[in-house]
Write a structure and sequence with these properties.
With 129 residues, the protein is α+β, with helices and mostly antiparallel strands. Helix content is 27%, strand content 36%. Strand 4 and strand 5 form a beta hairpin.
């Protein structure tokens, strides 16, 4: 797939408790902020929040499945708002630059909640295959 500036794609997913538990199992990130409601109630968040990298994984999914499957070279991330279990997230990647001589593409990436508020923002560099 030939990517060009302005190309964009999105996908959405509602994050379930099962997603959080499975993510913790696979990654070994068992931080009680994500898994223990009683513990999480004592924190500034007032309850469990979703792993930031679970939300960021949706960026990888949109790049890998909706934009021709390029290979990651890098990704910056800024986590700007916590995500709660049950929220629907939409990951979007938009081509903002193409370096033709190296066939390297730069993408603006974001994850928004159902209200359209950004929860994760960043930039990815990918190598089209």
């Amino acid at each position: 797939m030939q990517l060009k500036p302005g190309d964009r794609a999105s996908l959405s997913k509602t994050i379930t408790q099962e997603d959080v538990v499975e993510f913790a199992r696979v990654t070994l990130d068992t931080n009680p902020l994500h898994l223990d409601e009683e513990f999480a109630k004592q924190t500034r968040f007032g309850g469990c929040i979703v792993h930031g990298m679970l939300g960021a994984g949706l960026i990888s999914a949109v790049i890998g499945t909706k934009l021709g499957g390029p290979i990651y070279l890098g990704q910056t991330l800024k986590f700007v708002k916590p995500v709660r279990i049950g929220e629907t997230l939409t990951a979007t990647a938009e081509v903002i630059a193409v370096r033709e001589d190296k066939n390297i593409v730069t993408l603006k990436t974001s994850v928004t909640n159902a209200e359209g508020k950004e929860v994760i923002v960043g930039e990815a560099t990918v190598l089209p295959v």
